[in-house]
Design brief:
The protein is an alpha/beta fold. It has two domains: 210 residues, Spore Coat Polysaccharide Biosynthesis Protein SpsA, Chain A (Alpha-Beta Complex), CATH 3.90.550.10; 37 residues, no CATH class. The protein is 36% helix and 17% strand. It has twelve helices and ten strands. Strands 3-2-1-4-7-6-8 form a seven-stranded mixed β-sheet, with helices on both faces. About 2% of the residues have low confidence.
């Protein structure tokens, strides 16, 4: 990377600005001796919130994306917690191509737990992206089969180490948009489309660069972060039940609050997940309650799940 600067990009709307700030602080606090440059691409964000984000660090540059730019992506989402701002990551390499050659893209729900300088040592001159697999299981990946990929290497697009010149040369943005335009049934929207477009142009890297929280059991979620020697560089808190909702108490939420303490949102209370709950969430909560011995509470959640599943859909 030029001048040994690690360029890091995020894409967000107003709903995730706080979480981007927390993610950025987690990187800064674990990389105090590194040169970092953050590029935050914003859609539908309030000016006051943008100024607040900039207070997080002097190393943040913001870019506002217009509605007309996103209107090109007419994809119907099948997953409720994903919205149009996810498509901005397809534009980022083009928008930074004049000044940046290699870029680390991160989702807002990624937290850093160690030094990331080794990212610059990953050789991607002959690739478009270095990526982490979406599953650590060895059996055939269901997503690879679903998309009929040429390999079993279905990756998670929440962490992408991008070779920008190669991205531009192979016209990845337009090719991915074309796939999205033709196929509204893609389960994971642009992540699926990127897997199709990039399937012969990726380098698979260690899971420490994109360790998914959903890989852990409930017990591991309370023990994992104490093993300092084996902590990943990034933990990606995938799925809709985020650690930043007040109902999801545990060690992950404690760590989120620790980094949040160093942001302009330090005094903001965590929001509730109740108004975002899906039918499946009631079943998940019921299972968790039963395992913890909270039988009555678990029964209430499961009863609500059954009612919603069979009578409300």
């Amino acid at each position: 990377m030029k001048n040994n600067i690690i360029h890091i990009a995020y894409c967000t709307d107003s709903n995730y600005l706080e979480h981007v700030s927390v993610s950025i602080q987690s990187i800064i606090l674990n990389n105090l001796n590194e040169k970092l440059q953050f590029h935050v691409f914003l859609y539908n964000a309030k000016k006051d919130d943008i100024e607040r984000l900039k207070e997080t660090s002097n190393s943040i540059v913001t870019y506002e994306i217009k509605q007309t730019d996103l209107d090109r992506y007419r994809h119907k989402f099948t997953t409720n917690h994903i919205n149009k701002s996810t498509f901005i990551r397809l534009m980022v390499p083009r928008l930074l191509s004049d000044n940046v050659e290699k870029l680390l893209y991160l989702d807002a729900d990624v937290l850093c737990f160690s030094n990331i300088s080794a990212i610059s040592d990953i050789y991607i001159d002959n690739f478009v992206c270095a990526v982490g697999l979406d599953s650590i299981k060895e059996e055939t990946n269901a997503n690879s089969s679903r998309l009929k990929l040429t390999s079993n290497d279905y990756f998670n697009a929440g962490v992408l180490y991008i070779n920008i010149p190669n991205w531009i040369k192979l016209n990845i943005e337009e090719k991915t948009n074309e796939i999205l335009f033709k196929n509204n049934s893609l389960k994971y929207a642009d992540q699926d489309a990127l897997n199709i477009t990039l399937q012969n142009h990726i380098k698979i890297i260690d899971s420490k660069w994109n360790y998914l929280f959903t890989w852990m059991t409930e017990q591991q979620k309370e023990e994992f972060f104490y093993n300092k020697e084996n902590l990943p560089c990034f933990v990606h808190f995938t799925g809709p039940r985020k650690m930043w909702y007040q109902e999801h108490k545990g060690l992950a939420q404690d760590l989120y609050n620790f980094y949040k303490h160093f942001t302009p949102w330090a005094n903001n209370s965590l929001k509730s997940y109740k108004n975002k709950m899906r039918t499946v969430d009631f079943r998940v909560y019921a299972t968790q309650c039963f395992k913890k011995g909270s039988i009555i509470k678990g029964f209430k959640f499961y009863s609500t799940y059954l009612v919603k599943k069979f009578f409300c859909n």
